[in-house]
């Protein structure tokens, strides 16, 4: 199993499928999750079908890669993990993760998915670094990223507007030091 970068003991990461339309529709239209992105309006199923139709494009063309996090034992979709804002000149991308159900959080699925995507980004895509933007009060995400070696390198004050007030956001960074 050492050679498989997208499969772990608890989860595996897979490409989006056309059958994921309802799942993506539910996530993208969940207003509680909009604070995690720059989304301000709902997405139509038509638009998301087009997105899924083009999700086969590689990261160099699309500048992003979204994968579904699935349980290794029964293939149940648990969440999504994204590489976004890919900058090929500087070999870096942003990284975001979401485990859908609050019941499934804290069970190690997110940690393993994060390990897998880091390994994939550094080993297969040959990235130099990954970064994450995390709201200051999001203690579970801070703990998750810090456990994987991400370092807090900055604070963006009043960066994200949530519910009429502004919140601080941390910038986390992981630099690949095992360069050949």
Automatic annotation (TrEMBL):
<dbReference type="InterPro" id="IPR016181">
    <property type="entry name" value="Acyl_CoA_acyltransferase"/>
</dbReference>
<protein>
    <submittedName>
        <fullName>Acetyltransferase</fullName>
    </submittedName>
</protein>
<dbReference type="InterPro" id="IPR000182">
    <property type="entry name" value="GNAT_dom"/>
</dbReference>
<keyword id="KW-0808">Transferase</keyword>
<feature type="domain" description="N-acetyltransferase">
    <location>
        <begin position="11"/>
        <end position="173"/>
    </location>
</feature>
<dbReference type="Pfam" id="PF13302">
    <property type="entry name" value="Acetyltransf_3"/>
</dbReference>
<dbReference type="GO" id="GO:0016747">
    <property type="term" value="F:acyltransferase activity, transferring groups other than amino-acyl groups"/>
</dbReference>
């Amino acid at each position: 199993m050492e050679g498989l970068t997208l499969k772990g003991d608890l989860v595996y990461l897979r490409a989006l499928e056309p059958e994921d339309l309802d799942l993506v529709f539910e996530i993208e239209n969940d207003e509680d999750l909009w604070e995690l992105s720059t989304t301000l309006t709902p997405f139509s199923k038509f638009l998301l079908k087009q997105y899924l139709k083009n999700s086969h494009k590689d990261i160099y063309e699309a500048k992003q890669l979204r994968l579904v996090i699935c349980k290794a034992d029964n293939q149940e979709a648990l969440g999504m993990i994204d590489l976004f804002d890919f900058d090929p000149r500087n070999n870096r991308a942003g990284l975001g993760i979401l485990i859908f159900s609050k019941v499934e959080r804290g069970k190690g699925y997110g940690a393993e998915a994060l390990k897998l995507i880091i390994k994939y980004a550094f080993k297969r895509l040959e990235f130099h670094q990954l970064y994450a933007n995390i709201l200051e009060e999001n203690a579970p995400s801070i703990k998750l990223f810090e456990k994987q070696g991400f370092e807090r390198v900055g604070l963006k004050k009043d960066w994200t507007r949530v519910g009429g007030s502004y919140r601080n956001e941390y910038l986390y960074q992981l630099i690949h030091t095992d360069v050949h």
